[in-house]
Write a structure and sequence with these properties.
By secondary structure, this protein is an alpha/beta fold. It contains 17 helices and 23 strands.
């Protein structure tokens, strides 16, 4: 059983329930079809029944209701749906404007995650009663096929995302406070932000017979959002953190509490708001089906490396829309905050020292020299640990950690002259790392791809020309 099948991207089949009966839904040239199974060359695919869903299902009362949504979705575009989603987020979460913008854009992005093949993750961080879990609940009720849970195991992830076609839904994990201690799951999450990443596991037969064991490959790619009371450890969860954009939550005063809306208890106003969530989510699914095979033109942006991977997919999806500027401004803000965390790290401190020394022509730096720079920081010695020093800014540091950072992050190699230990650096490598340890700048959309609005098969009406648009945070360069 699978929840969606895109095949060769010409026709999309989405698993739904119609009056609690499972079907695959597809829409071609405004013709709505319900089928019970998909027959491929060597396999028969079935939609899950109501009791077999791991994600939140899409449920319709009849074929006529689906056709009504199809007519409505034909009148929508990326900008109009973004505005509807943003209106909902503002009702249920009292956070800053840039966070609302990013969450709203990401909600719509989840419906096209399998077309774009890369994504960032979101982390809602805050103390108790800060609303961080409510952020996940909004995604649960608007996002694409979400699995919302706590203490998700690797096996849960494999079963949910499956082995037939990636992007079967999105993952929302609440309370990941100890994520750095879950190494296997962190590895899954580190690789699962790009399309094509798979994990191979041995499949055990029900009777545990050795002859029935075989290997299976599971997909890991999808959009993911998390909540936590603290930011994951900078060192233990570094690779995971690099995929995150962090939304800081604090006790606020939202217009409505989404947990009360989802349990409306018959209250007329709450029921109306609950139905609004259900209605918008159905509309988003139908819009996805209708526009799945439309081309999404490439876009050139000023970012590089990891920053480009985190931001380009969503900018590409919204290029040419009236909300592109504010989405870009929001991303610029989050990248700046992310970079500031990195600039305040031990890695950045060591890099600044090594950059100065290598610029002076010194490519062989003794371990003792680097350690003396650490000892110059405000702090105190650690009793019974002569190779460690407790700094006020970075916590306890050991000589071994300093050496490991230089080798792993800066490409240093070890050397010894018979008296002292040295680290040998490559000047070009150090120069190439400058972008990683310098302040983030505003995102700029570069002109050629962004101004190409004549691409065939583009999404309905929302691929508007962006030529001439500019703002303080986003511009177009020819």
């Amino acid at each position: 059983m699978i929840c969606k099948y895109g095949g060769n991207e010409s026709v999309l089949y989405e698993a739904i329930l119609v009056n609690n009966t499972p079907y695959f839904l597809n829409i071609v040239s405004e013709e709505v079809s319900l089928i019970e199974s998909i027959e491929l060359d060597d396999i028969l695919l079935f939609p899950p029944s109501k009791t077999n869903y791991l994600s939140k299902e899409y449920s319709f009362t009849s074929l006529d209701e689906i056709k009504t949504y199809a007519k409505r979705a034909n009148k929508e575009n990326m900008y109009s749906l973004y505005k509807k989603i943003k209106k909902v987020w503002k009702k249920y979460l009292d956070i800053d404007v840039d966070s609302i913008v990013l969450c709203s854009a990401d909600t719509l992005f989840t419906y096209f995650q399998d077309r774009l093949g890369m994504t960032h993750y979101l982390l809602f961080v805050g103390d108790n009663s800060s609303g961080k879990s409510n952020g996940l609940r909004i995604f649960l009720n608007l996002g694409y096929r979400p699995m919302f849970d706590t203490s998700i195991t690797p096996a849960n992830i494999y079963n949910f995302l499956g082995q037939f076609e990636e992007g079967q839904g999105i993952i929302l994990e609440d309370e990941i406070d100890n994520i750095e201690d879950q190494e296997e799951k962190m590895r899954i999450y580190k690789g699962g932000y790009v399309s094509g990443t798979q994990v191979t596991r041995i499949y055990e037969s029900p009777d545990n017979s050795k002859s029935a064991k075989r290997q299976q490959r599971y997909f890991t790619y999808c959009f993911k959002a998390f909540s936590s009371e603290k930011y994951p450890s900078f060192y233990k969860a570094k690779g995971f953190n690099e995929r995150l954009l962090t939304i800081n939550c604090s006790p606020g005063n939202p217009q409505y509490d989404i947990t009360e809306i989802l349990n409306d208890s018959g209250d007329t106003n709450y029921k109306k708001l609950h139905n609004e969530l259900i209605d918008l989510r159905k509309l988003l699914l139908i819009f996805r089906i209708q526009n799945y095979n439309k081309a999404i033109p490439d876009i050139r942006i000023s970012l590089r490396n990891r920053e480009k991977q985190l931001c380009k997919p969503i900018l590409r999806l919204f290029q040419g829309t009236d909300c592109l500027n504010e989405i870009s401004r929001s991303l610029s803000k989050f990248l700046l905050e992310k970079k500031n965390k990195k600039l305040n790290s031990l890695d950045s401190y060591l890099y600044s020292i090594i950059l100065d020394l290598t610029n002076s022509g010194n490519l062989e730096i003794s371990n003792e020299t680097l350690w003396n720079f650490v000892l110059s920081l405000p702090g105190s010695t650690v009793l019974n640990k002569p190779q460690s020093y407790h700094t006020e800014e970075f916590g306890t540091i050991s000589k071994g950690i300093v050496t490991k950072i230089c080798e792993d992050k800066f490409g240093a190699t070890r050397s010894h002259d018979g008296q002292k230990r040295y680290l040998v650096f490559n000047k070009k490598t150090i120069e190439n790392l400058k972008d990683n340890y310098s302040s983030s700048r505003n995102i700029v959309i570069l002109g050629d791809a962004a101004s190409n609005t004549n691409t065939a098969n583009t999404f309905n009406t929302f691929w508007k020309g962006v030529e001439g648009k500019s703002s303080s945070n986003i511009g177009i360069k020819d």
